[in-house]
Automatic annotation (TrEMBL):
Pfam families: GalKase_gal_bdg, GHMP_kinases_C, GHMP_kinases_N. Its EC number is 2.7.1.6. It catalyses: alpha-D-galactose + ATP = alpha-D-galactose 1-phosphate + ADP + H(+). Catalyzes the transfer of the gamma-phosphate of ATP to D-galactose to form alpha-D-galactose-1-phosphate (Gal-1-P). The keyword ATP-binding applies. Keywords: ATP-binding, Carbohydrate metabolism, Cytoplasm, Galactose metabolism, Kinase, Magnesium, Metal-binding, Nucleotide-binding, Transferase. Its main location: cytoplasm. This is Galactokinase. The record marks 24 as: Transition state stabilizer. It is found in: Cytoplasm.
Length: 384
């Protein structure tokens, strides 16, 4: 494995342990994980690898094959504060600092090599993949006995309070708990999950990357979180709910008049209708109703475009191109503002699908999309 050879080249020794953490795709249920909703994600077969060896001192050395110019970043267990110049290493430092603050014993340092094949800023959760990976590595090496839920929650805490992105729990939890060949219906309020089938006979899931460099995504994401919290605060003055996703579409109609701001009303509408789509999607999947499921994907994208306003030109063109090329359903997956979309494509057109989508997309954007052929996989694990 190249990972071993790279570790040897960088650290002049063989690694002692190897690990893998997947990325994730969310099939439907977008921007509702921080609103207590049900979501429908799966772990995917591209992700982040780690090779490690133990040290006898208090230093941790990090190296990533994806950021070779950064070289080896050396940090001390006594100073894991955020430093902008450390880039991706901050995600790892945040996990370790959080473990130490919670009283877990990290007795010595490590040499760590990271190598990933998840495109950064694609909406496939490269940061969450890294966070869960580091949490799992340290739990395994130091016998911390962290549950997969614990690791996911620590990852979310690092995103929220160390990195400053007010995300929900979905990304970290599916990466920690993914099941091969399945998706998880996940209650982001209670953290309960159950595995469901995630494929339709005669169809293939295709992930499509806009390759559009996203701008100000974190600030826009945090803005949506704040808008939803504002709506929840207003609704709670008249109805005893803990999350926006407790509200049904019927209740939405009777509550609309209490939200005076048109933008906030659109955000509210997306959250409530998207939750209803996830519930319906689980039924369609159980009945092997690909056409009905695809209609929900299309409705989800329309809602994320018009009511939640997180898609943008590149994602809209890519989704429209997928539908013109023969996909029965397509939508943005992930935070939006660029990144990836997912499409449900009949197997008999797979030979022409990607080239036709590329032509449509490139003609309108002058960018070339990337397509990922993935399967749904297990969550984070140690590998041999």
């Amino acid at each position: 494995m190249e990972l071993k050879q790279t570790f040897n080249d960088v650290y002049q020794q063989h690694p002692e342990r190897l690990y893998y953490s997947p990325g994730r795709v969310n099939i439907i249920g977008e921007h509702i994980d921080y609103n207590g909703g049900l979501v429908f994600p799966a772990a995917i077969s591209i992700g982040t690898y780690a090779a490690i060896s133990n040290r006898t001192d208090q230093m941790i050395r990090f190296y990533s094959s994806n950021f070779k110019d950064q070289g080896i970043v050396t940090v001390s267990l006594s100073d894991l504060s955020y430093q902008e110049t450390h880039g991706w290493v901050n995600y790892a430092k945040g996990i370790i600092q959080t473990l130490i603050k919670r009283g877990y014993q990290i007795e010595h340092g490590l040499d760590v090599l990271i190598e990933g094949n998840l495109p950064p800023a694609s909406g496939l959760s490269s940061s969450a993949s890294l966070e869960v990976l580091i949490g799992y590595v340290f739990s395994d090496v130091f016998n911390l006995n962290l549950t997969r839920e614990n690791i996911a929650l620590i990852g979310q805490e690092v995103e929220n309070h160390y990195m400053g992105l007010h995300c929900g729990i979905m990304d970290q939890l599916i990466i920690a708990k993914g099941i091969e060949g399945k998706a998880l219906i996940m209650n982001t309020h209670t953290l309960e999950t159950h595995a469901v089938n995630a494929t339709f006979k005669g169809y293939t899931w295709v992930i499509m990357n806009t390759n559009y460099k996203r701008k100000n995504t974190d600030s826009k994401y945090n803005e949506r979180v704040k808008e939803c919290q504002t709506v929840l605060n207003q609704i709670q003055t008249i109805q005893p709910v803990k999350t926006l996703c407790e509200i049904t579409p019927d209740q939405l109609d009777s509550l609309k008049s209490w939200i005076k701001d048109d933008v906030l009303l659109k955000r509210f509408k997306h959250v409530v209708t998207e939750q209803a789509r996830v519930i319906e999607a689980e039924k369609r999947m159980a009945n092997n109703d690909a056409i009905g499921f695809a209609a929900l994907l299309n409705a989800s994208h329309a809602s994320l475009k018009d009511d939640y306003e997180v898609t943008g030109l590149h994602l809209d063109v890519l989704v429209e191109g997928a539908l013109k090329a023969g996909a029965i359903g397509a939508r943005v997956t992930g935070a939006g503002f660029g990144g990836c979309a997912i499409a449900l494509v009949p197997n008999d057109i797979m030979g022409s699908f990607e080239s036709l989508v590329s032509q449509i997309y490139t003609d309108k954007t002058e960018l070339v999309p990337t397509f990922y052929d993935v399967i749904f996989t297990d969550g984070v694990k140690r590998i041999e």
